[in-house]
Structures are given as structure tokens and as C-alpha cells.
Amino acid sequence: MSLVFYILAALTVAGALAAVLLKNTVHCALALTAAFAGLALLFLSLDAQFAGFAQILVYIGAVAILVVFAILLTRDSETPKDTVYGPRPLIGLVAAAGIFAVLGWAVLRSAAALPHENASPAAAPNVTVMDIGNALMGRYVLPLEIVALLLTAALIGAVIVAMHEKEGAR
Amino acid sequence: MNPLTGYLLVAALLFSIGLAGALTRRNAILVLIGIELMLNAANLNLIAFWRYGPHPEALTGMMFAIFSIAVAAAEAAVGLGLVINIHRHAHTTNLDQMNRMKG
Predict the structure, then answer these.
(1) Range of the domain at B52
(2) A17 Cβ under 8 Å from any chain B Cβ
(3) Are the C-beta atoms of residues A147 and A154 closer than 8 Å to each other?
(4) Which of A61, A73, B81, B90 has the most CB atoms less than 10 A away?
(5) How many structural domains compose chain B?
(6) Does residue A144 contact residue A136 with C-beta atoms inside 8 Å?
(7) Structure pTM?
(8) Does any CB of chain B come closer than 8 Å to the CB of residue A73?
(9) Residue B30 is assigned to a structural domain of this protein
(10) Which portions of chain A are predicted below pLDDT 70?
(11) Is B102 a member of any domain?
(12) In a domain, B15, yes or no
């Protein structure tokens, strides 16, 4: 494991923790952006350049901005002073910790069966954006069309759902 | 440590953090943030398996991750639109107070 991986993992996990734990929702959104950036860098460190830049464009460029807009549009004058957590947060924490324990146990137990055990980091796969484009237009063209339809439906749906419904003011 | 193991552990940790956030926070937007974190953890798993798997040139994991990013973007747009609409009707984003389906 390289130093770069540890730095990126620490950045990502710290951003995710801050996004979940902070009290101010705007700070949460900013921490979420940091976590997304860390994830994009992790993708880049895995030689997945296209996915890394798609992550930056989609998540940092669109989703984080959308979250900030939603937070600012729905921010009430009354911020919850007492607690930001729902009823019985302990159950949720225990469930999450239990799932992490099971996942970590499974990963560590199956480490011997994972590919490239004991091998030095495998050579970077020789995949260019051109290959990805060819695959998208060839083998994966049907999923691509379905995603295009889904995105169109989501766009129209989000606009209709969020549209003002005052009489005559449509 | 195997590099793949490290990435898988980071993804598991991210998933658990997102799950904890989605289960414990009371603000609807924060719950959506938790769900986004879980989706991203899954994406990290897909990319890591693509990178260290036997046939990276087949691009399967990469395609999964790209489509997953697109679907997550659609989910975020519709989810946040719903939150804004609910806030307009009920004047709250507190999930505990959203206890009726009638507008």
C-alpha cells in the first residue's frame, strides 16, 4: 500500500465522517464535496481516469451544487437546537457498526482468494477513453440508451415535482 | 496488505458511514447525503475490482461504475426535488414530522 493511498483514504473517510456528523447542514455539504473529491482521486489512483473525471464532473460539479441549493432553499429560520439526530440514533449506529464489522471480516478473511495476492501492483490496464467510447457504442449501447431515457425522465420529473403549483402562476 | 484489500476496506468504511448517516440523521437532505455516500462506496468497489480483476480490458466494472454514477445523478435530482416540494407544503425537512401522505 502506497502513501498516496493512505492520504487519499484518510481524506475521503474524514470528509464522509464530517458530512454525516457535523451540525450545520451547509458544512455537511462542503464536507461531502471533500469526500467526493477524495473518491475521485482514489479512482484516479486506480488508473480509472474516465471514471475519476466523471466523478468530478457529476458529483462535485452537479450533485454537490444541487445539495447546496436544496439546503439553502429549505433552510428554515429555526435550526434544530436540541439535536440533529432522529429518535433512537443508537440503533442506527449499532447497525452501521455491525455491517462494517461483517464487511471488514469478510474482506480480511477472503484476502487470500482475492486476485493478485502477493503480486506487486499489477501493470496498469491499457484502457483509453477511446476503448470506453467504443464499448459504450458497441457492447453497452442498450444500457446507454436506457440511461439516456432515465436521465431525461429524471430531468422532467425533477422539474415537475419542484415546480410551483400556485393557481395561474405555473 | 493487498492493495485490493485496502480499497475494499475503505469502501466498507464509507458504506457504513453513509448508512449511519442515513439511519440517524433527521434532516431529509442529510439522509440523501448518506445514500450518496453508500452509492459512492459501491462505485469504489466496482472500480477496485475492475483494476485488480483478471480481465480489466473487458471494462465490465468500469461500465458498471459509469452507469451507476449516471443513475445516482438522476436519483439525487429527483430526491432533492421531492425534498424541496415537501418543504414547500409542510415547511419542514425533519423526517419525524413528515408523517402524513396527504398534501
Answers:
(1) 3-97
(2) yes
(3) no
(4) B81
(5) 1
(6) yes
(7) 0.88
(8) yes
(9) yes
(10) 1, 76-83, 114-123, 165-170
(11) no
(12) yes
pLDDT in tens, B52-91: 888 888 888 899 999 999 999 999 999 998 888 888 888 8
Inform me whether the C-beta atom of residue A33 falls under 8 Å from chain B C-beta atoms.
Answer: no
Q: Specify the residue for cell string 485488480.
A: B52
CA distance A127 to chain B (A): 6
**Amino acid A115: pLDDT:** 61
pLDDT at B49 over 60: yes
List the single residue in B29, B59, B83 with the smallest CB-CB distance to A135: B59
Q: Select the residue from B7, B14, B99 to test the A interface by mutation, using most A Cβ atoms within 10 A.
A: B14
Reported CATH class of domain A1-78: mainly alpha
Set of cell numbers at residue B68 = 451507476
> What residue spans define the domains of chain A?
1-78, 127-170
Q: Which residue has the cell 503480486?
A: A119
CATH of the domain at B35: 1.10.287.3510
- Look-up: residue for cell 449506529? A93
Distance from CA of B22 to the nearest CA of A (A): 8
Residue of A nearest to B46 (CA): A43
SS3 category, B94: strand
CA distance A113 to chain B (A): 11
Reduced to 3 DSSP states, what percent helix, strand and coil does chain A have, rounded to the nearest 5?
70, 0, 30
Neighboring chain B residues of A35 at a CB cutoff of 8 Å: 14, 37, 40
